[in-house]
Design goal:
Layout (H helix, E strand, L loop, with lengths): L2 H30 L30 H37 L1 H16 L2 H12 L3 H28 L2 H8 L4 H37 L10 H8 L8 H28 L3 H4 L4
Length: about 280
């Protein structure tokens, strides 16, 4: 199978998994009918028990219900944090690339400052300052992720700024904001989409890691929280950590497949150098 064929299969598989996860997050709680925080049976029931498909945890809570609730949390964090990162990074990149000069120097200095600090360490510091909550986690992930978008958008904008159609728009007297929004933004969206798909995967992993460390929202059930809460009993109740861990793995794998597939179709240099039709 050709490189483009492999990318197409991966993209379809990734999209299928993401659609199933989205359906699980939206309709799962009402269809399953069991709350993630409700003790429904005896503690430490193994998988395939009559009262719990994936077993129960140390408090008798249904692990399947936790997986469903965790899907909702992970997809929410991935989507909203990525949207925030794209908005911040997009604005910074467009301003730096279009105006250049002092604006470019200042904004890229700020961008480099954020990139000098390990993103996960910065996320931990920000969540600790804001107090652990779903909102603070989303804000922290967006704040550590926007530099990736800013650099890509800036590079694309610097190139597009010198293209004939953009120069013609500028010489015609079109307002600066209109040149940026109408003539530049549509041409950078494909690159931003690829970067955004990577940020979604990183956001899900970061939220899981923060919850594992006890910095997650104490009012929501997440996959990272489930893995962290079960680490002391992994020898006697392996299912408590294995199933949420597999959920994280499958979700991140699906997002990466989508990212690779999008890169192959939107980047003409991908898939063995084949150009888009």
């Amino acid at each position: 199978m050709s490189g483009r064929g492999n990318l197409a299969v991966g993209l379809q598989a990734g999209l299928a998994i993401m659609v199933l996860l989205a359906l699980l997050a939206v309709f799962g709680p009402s269809l399953y009918g069991v709350g993630a925080w409700t003790s429904t049976s005896s503690p430490f029931l193994p998988p395939l028990s009559a009262d719990a498909w994936l077993g129960t945890d140390l408090l008798g809570r249904d692990v399947m219900a936790g997986i469903i609730e965790g899907a909702r949390v992970s997809l929410f964090v991935g989507a909203v944090a990525t949207l925030g990162a794209v908005v911040i990074g997009g604005i910074v990149g467009l301003v730096a690339g279009y105006f250049r000069g002092a604006a470019d120097t200042l904004l890229m200095a700020v961008t480099e400052f954020f990139q000098t600090i390990p993103s996960f360490i910065l996320a931990v510091l920000l969540v600790s300052i804001f107090n652990p909550s779903l909102q603070s986690i989303v804000i922290a992930i967006a704040l550590v992720s926007w530099p990736q978008v800013a650099r890509v958008v800036r590079t694309q904008t610097l190139s597009l700024r010198e293209r004939e159609f953009v120069m013609a728009a500028r010489l015609s007297g079109k307002p600066v904001w209109k040149v940026i929004v109408v003539d530049i933004v549509p041409h950078v969206l494909s690159s931003v989409l690829i970067v955004a798909s990577v940020i979604v995967a990183n956001a899900i992993l970061t939220e899981s890691a923060l919850s594992f460390l006890g910095l997650g929202d104490p009012n929501v059930m997440s996959w990272g929280y489930m893995v962290g809460a079960s680490r002391s009993v992994v020898r006697i109740a392996w299912w408590m950590s294995v199933f949420p861990g597999l959920a994280i793995l499958v979700t991140v794998l699906a997002v990466n497949l989508v990212s690779d597939g999008l890169a192959g179709y939107l980047d003409p240099r991908a898939a063995g150098g084949e150009a888009r039709p």
